Amino acid sequence: MDNxxxxxxxxxxxxxxxxxxxxGAIHLMKLAKSKGLELEVALxxxxxxxxxxxxxxxxxxxxxxxxxxxxxxxTGCPIETDVRGDEFHFLTRTRHYGVPFxxxxxxxxxxxxxxxxxxxxxxxxxxxxxxxxxxxxxAGKEVLYGQDERTVIGVRTxxxxxxxxxxxxxxxxxxxxxxxxxxxxxxxxxxxxxxxISSKLHIFEGKMPQVFETGIKEVIQLPETNYFSNSRGNDxxxxxxxxxxxxxxxxxxxxxxxxxxxxxxIVGLSYQDTMLxxxxxxxxxxxxxxxSKLIKGGRVxxxxxxxxxTGGYYTMPKLAVGGGLFVGACxxxxxxxxxxxxxxxxxxxxxxxxxxxxxxxxxxxxxETLGYYHELFEDSWLKKELCTGRNFxxxxxxxxxxxxxxxxVQYLTDGKGIxxxxxxxxxxxxxxxxxxxxxxxxxxxxxxxAYDGVLFVDKLTGVYLSKTQHREDQPCHLIxxxxxxxxxxCFETYRCPCTRFCPGNVYELETDDKTHGKRLRLNxxxxxxxxxxxxxxxxxxxxxxxxxxxxxxxxxxx
Length: 558
Ligand code: SF4
Hints:
The protein is an alpha+beta fold. Strands 1, 2, 8, 9, 10, 13, 19 and 20 form an eight-stranded mixed beta sheet that branches. It binds iron/sulfur cluster. Iron/sulfur cluster binds at residues 478, 502-504, 506, 527-533, 544.
């Protein structure tokens, strides 16, 4: 297949069509124009459309957007509503208590509630208007290096039209080698290319492990008269039930326009109970009397899931290598205490753009020259913001009430806390063996849920509502390295947690009628591309690789 590969050359290539890459590409075009520099810039995105794989809360702090596009309102930025007021509630199993004190980093009044998918789609059109070559439906599959094997020179996109047996079909199209003087990686959380670069160039050496949370989210259409018509707050956060105090995470409901709300539950993947089922927890959250009152009479119109990278400042990789830069979520650019990553991702892309212009002015694209991005980061409000949350996820991952003590001290010491550089464990290492939990009676159990198919939908209906599609006849994009380990060791020790942490019902444990042996069945076409399995599997036995580009969720309003 290699001898038919086409090569295209650009000055700059952005990989990933999220807020970081798009803000970077827009800022780059504007800066280049102001300096009379002519640059050929391309952006590739694995989703079928720009925005079809974008999912987030999402309350947007407009600080970076104002810098990027000062007249964003006049240019048609799709804002759902502005935040009128914040509410923060502690939930017990049946009750809720409004917390009178909302932490300052969660003061969102005046910020914008958006649909990330719509927002990103608008940024994509804006970038195209400035001359960026935007290519949705192209996934970066492999990093290309120069002769020194250390300098990034572009990416190879994935082949299309390959059969399940890895043989080319009649409609086969070989991937393209997209070469660039600078490649900007903005792949989002747990980027596959970033991991490949990490193995080769050790960009995470000396850093704490990246850690993650998984969010399941819906957009719900409410009746005309609803809670938000007269409420003070339209930006509601909860903690406590259903996760309890030993698992970090919480819920949110944001008011959107046209009587819609965006609702979700975020679960820290450092959880220990192997029987925890992410989707069941999400449904429990929705059924809580306080929440179900807010969404009464509603209908789910879209659902999706995604991981969020929350480790923060101490988990950031080196930001530059020869010919390459890392922006957005894949570089841990998220303000965890504020629960916001869009403005931080955008700013990282913009700083990368400034470093790229500097590199072109010097005609040098080495790690040293592109390292100017790191210097710009050090002097920016972005660094200050990330530093205030540098120990936050580490603190909230602690069990019980002690987390509040740590968070309180960090609050008073601008993020320093009692231990600065508080240690954190990789999410794949935190599960407790099933038998240990059974013996100490702390295993979670779930009652059978009744789904009405309207406001409460089951996992498969959720997948349908995410508009996820994959071409069936293609190699499986979920690599289970040793299937026997799953049904023997993993079943015995952890009862196959993949069957519970996957929000797409991709992993099912079944028993062979004849041999009565267990086997793991995969439904890769349900995959929501959240990458939870790649992160949380306790044996590192599952690797998520990018399927054929254009496949996956088809988000439009989440
Ligand atoms: Fe997420 Fe993995 Fe399930 Fe796909 S298979 S939905 S990436 S957990």
